[in-house]
Amino acid sequence: MFHPFSVTETLNIAWHIFKKNFATIVVYSLLAIVLIGAIVFVIDFILADAILASIGVFVLLIGISFIFLGFIKLVFQLLDREYYDFEFRDIVPKIKMLLSYLTLLVIVSTLAVFMTNLIKNMNESFIQNVLGILVGVFFEFFFLFYFPICTCFIVDDGSGPFESIAQSFQLIKGNFLKYFLLFILIEALVFVGSITIIGMVVVVPFVNILLVVAYRKLIYSHLDVDDDITETV
To answer: Which residue of 84, 182, 199, 216 could cross-link 193, Cys pair, CB 3.0 to 4.6 Å?
Structure first.
């Protein structure tokens, strides 16, 4: 049976996954925080040399990306655990996956910085201000709106960085308004969760689960097949 994309159903499934696997998700999140904190501590207090500190920052970026992709893989496994069990190795990101994610992140970030600096070097005028606002909004919107779906394609489909962009635009195109509504809800959740550290520990994992479920629901909405994950709630 065909299942159209539904914001309410997506929220319900994400909450079901989060609640059912709360202990696993919290343990992973706490371990991630400890690991990232340890790397930051080493960079700030041990690596006094500027070159070593720069290397440390690069290692931190790789570490955060690795942990994030691992969590996304974990969520996919939790979605499908109704049908089969998984092992620790099933949530370890592959090298290709990590490289694709980092390549996309670096290219888009570099392009954003380049465009921003290019506009700043223009003669100060109304056009400069307008272009600055438009470029800022465009890249922020891309990172918050499309980038998560790109990440899901990289993890779930083994897509390359540029391929994931094309796939994300194609996937969201038919459900733009519904996905935009979900995007607004996510931004509201992040704002509320950012008030406290405990709130972020809960909200950040839930938001990422929500995005993975949205991706899976969008995939099924484009296929004339039964969406089994909706039957697990």
So the answer is: 199
CA–CA dist 179, 173 (Å, integer): 9
Q: At what angle do helices 7-20 and 176-193 cross, to 10 degrees?
A: 40
Nearest-angstrom CA–CA distance, 168 and 216: 12
Q: What is the pTM of this model?
A: 0.86
Helix axes 161-173, 95-120, angle to 10 degrees: 80
Distance CA 66, CA 45 (A): 23
Length of the chain: 233
CA distances from 196 to 19, 54, 165, 172, 210 (A): 20, 30, 33, 32, 20
Are 133 and 145 within 8 A, CB to CB? no
What is the mean pLDDT of the segment spanning 224-231?
51
Q: What stretches of 142-196 show up as alpha helix (H) in DSSP?
A: 147-156, 161-173, 176-193
Q: Residue 106: enclosing H or E segment and its boundaries?
A: helix 95-120
Asked whether 184 and 105 are in contact (CB, 8 A), the reply is no
Measure CA 107 to chain center.
16
| Identity of the amino acid at 10 | T
Going by the DSSP 8-state scheme, the letter that residue 123 receives in this structure is P
- What is the separation of C-alpha 119 from the centre of its chain, rounded to a whole number of angstroms? 28
